[in-house]
# Entry
Amino acid sequence: MKAHGINAASITYDAGEVLSAFTEAYKIEYPMLSDVGSKVIRDFDILNTNIPPDHKMLYGIPWPGEYLIAPDRTVRDKLFLPSYEHRASATEVIFRNYGADAGGNAVEIKTGVLDATVALSTDRAFPGHELGVALDIRLKPGWHIYGKPLPSSYRATELVFEGDLVDELTIELPAAKPMLLKALGETLPVYADRVQALGKLGIKWSPPMPAPFLLALGKPIAPGAHKISGALRFQACSDTVCEPPEEIRFELPLTIEQGVPPAPKPG
Amino acid sequence: MDAQTKATVLHDIVGKMGAGGAGITTASWLEFVEAQNDGFQTGPAIGAKVPDFTLPDQHGVRRSFRELTGPNGLLLVFSRSAGW
# Structure
């Protein structure tokens, strides 16, 4: 984020002593702002109004989320997820705004007809995190690949992620251009030159503590080094030849962070 | 879910969690999550301006938006709590 001239800060309703205990316990380097009484949370219109005012512990919390705000205070982007389990990764919002060049965790695919880069916004995540995904396909001259809708005899271009860590991938490729393919006598949606798309990948949630009521909602995921596997599927054709459908498999490393206990109580 | 039900669910589950979690079922936990997130709002729209603010940080230093932002902006994260 620093490389892009973006600073980070957090806001909670906690007292300064709670924030300084958290800062010390987790070596926090960004400003953690104390909004006791939740005035700023109200000014942003994100006070959680489901909480009854007589609830001593919860009253004053926001609906949690994050904003990318320009220096003139205009909202450039925001991410809010309505659950406890799934949370946006800060890297996702940077990725959405700066693309794969924002760094992260990338794999290169090279074939006779195309080069492609598949990138995740980070190589570290907590269970339940939502990560940014970037796809960048560069086709060699004279070749095209297919978009949708497509007759079932051809394979449309598709990115997939698989495995125990993968919850859901949302990525939409740009609209493909209809092209009259003389050799086939058909007009089909195709991509030529370059295809770029940004999306998001949900990592499966796992219970942060061994509470029986949570175990029914997600399998435990061991902290440490994991691999996310995936595939790029496509079918390449030129004006004269059509290659068979291809599936290029790849792996990206992802370290699952150890869940942390709450910071010690101040005092 | 009406306001009274939400209040009952929130008080009940937080009370049980404080007592070690006994008696919480998966169904009641999901009800708790729903009671908390029902009709959630996300604040200023993309393209709109956020309100200006100045708040003390964890070291007791008052910080304004103008001072917090980098040359290209600020990633501002609102969390429930750093204390629980």
About this structure: Chain B touches chain A through 58 residues (CB under 8 Å). Residues 3-18 of chain B form the longest helix (16 residues). The longest strand of chain B covers residues 73-78.
